[in-house]
Design brief:
This protein is mainly α. It has helices at residues 15-35, 48-52, 63-68, 78-90, 95-121, 124-136, 141-145, 150-170, 174-192, 204-211, 223-244, 257-276, 280-284, 289-292, 296-319, 321-334, 357-374, 381-401, 408-418, 423-435, 439-454, 462-471, 473-483, 489-506, 510-523, 528-540, 544-557, 561-573, 577-590. It is elongated, with a radius of gyration of 28 Å.
Amino acid sequence: MDVAVSGPPRGGWTLASWHRTALALFAPAAISIGLYLGALRGGFVWDDAVLVDGSGIGGGRSLAACFRSPFLDHFYRPLVSASFYVDRLLWPNNPWAYHWVNITLHALATIVVGLLVREAFASRALGAIGALVFAVHPVHVGAVAWIGGRTDALGCLWTGLFMLGLVSASHRVGHARAMWLVCSVVTYALSVFTKEQTLFLLPLVPLAFVCFEPRRGIALPGDRWYALLPFVVVAAFYLAIGVFLGMPGPQPMGVTVWEQLSRVGLATLAYAELLMVPNQRAMHALSLGPWERLGNWAVVAGYCVVLTLTWVLCRWYRRDRRLAWMLASTLLAVLPVSNILPMPFLLYAPYRAAVASIGLAAILASKLANLRWRLGGFRSAPAAAALACITTWCCMQTLMGIPTFESESALFGTVVRYDTDSVIARYMLAKIATDVGDHGTAAEQLSRILDYLYGSADWRDPETAVARLRTDRLVRMRAMQNQGTRGDPGSFVGTLFRHLGFALMNEGHTAEAIRAFRTALVWHPDQADIHHGLGWCYASQRSYALAEPHLVRAIQIAPTAERYQLLAQVYEREGRFAEATRMWREAARMGNADTTRL
């Protein structure tokens, strides 16, 4: 049976109490800052480029545009967009400053979590322990060490304040309750407009008035339902704005009911591993692949986790409702990202569970304190030893994970090491390799992506590749879960073939490049560079009659001096010198013509 932890007198927040609490929380906040100082060496990676240049936050034209435009084309997160807009004004193109903002947000959230635990359990010591666990937990690496993780770092701060206001209100009556409720509603609004995940935390409002008794006075039974109303209004207002602006909602990904249920089980197991036994695999995977390879037993294990946590929630509701409320907050935070609803992009991402660590930190703090009381003969030694083990493990995993975000090659190389099925990681590695002229590596990564999407190597035949994408539900499903629901999945697959064609062409594998270009052309018939690539490949094989129409089409779509020059050489090989001369003149007129000849 859980033993209640004694705390400060129930007279409320005195000045002396505030001072002692501040001192108790300063150390975890300072530790959180020191732990992430290594992140300052990181540059702009992944989505950071479009966030910094403004194209991912409404074009960066004005602050108002942040509230009228989608965040990264998929979400409505105006406060995150606004924070990056302010960053652009204060320190443009300075990754060091962007990282400092994230680190500061995490330190502030650490303090708020400590205050929440202190208020919930009436113990300053528990507040310090909870803040420490939150500060060092590896689930925050993506949210803090990655500039683009600002969404979750900011979301943790607002959500912690929302929960603090709610618990403080439930402990009080009269004007004090009203004041704390207003603070909770405001911060709930801020959290919702930071990340839509907070919408699912609404049940915490009435549950708080059941789980936390007023320390003074008598609360009316209906208070919790009246208190819920302004939170519902905020949620409805957010959803209405999203609908008005045309934000995409959950859309089917072409999966069966069993497949969706399997994803729920796998995602539950993955997030449980990340939160309860954090390790590098759970911290760096960007798909459910590492758990899918475990087979159906992984799905069963995921649902065993669900049943176990449900049983624990019911047990704690009878014995210690404070713990039940904290567990409910953790479960509700994970619920929307556990594939209950179709995810628009990536079936699993570790930074999405950052908010769930707030309740987890409170639970661990309480359990550590109870361990101390149960083994009273040893006083605080058992709790101190357990806290030291947890803190050491978390710090070690966090410090190992922070350098991952120093560069794109480090990030995506690490992801592929732990998650070989990650399409986005291999795609980015192919892009990086192309940028440095390593076309062999680019071709290898793109080929591995297509092997995964098709489940075999039959994509190498253009007709088969096109037919399977049009008729095979599994191929389309895998493509959609990696490119989102906007647009035909053929567009995404066609882009992969286009990049593969250029990588193979630059490696001298002309025949294979032609097959890749032909496949890409089915979905991108009006892309000039594909026609250009096909024309060059056919010309290098001396198939001038096949090269000519593609080069002509490329010039019609987007004329360049290089394309005129290449078509001129094709005409020369065919003995059509008058037309070749005309093409040379057009190339010279456009300027910068390449003098290299076939």
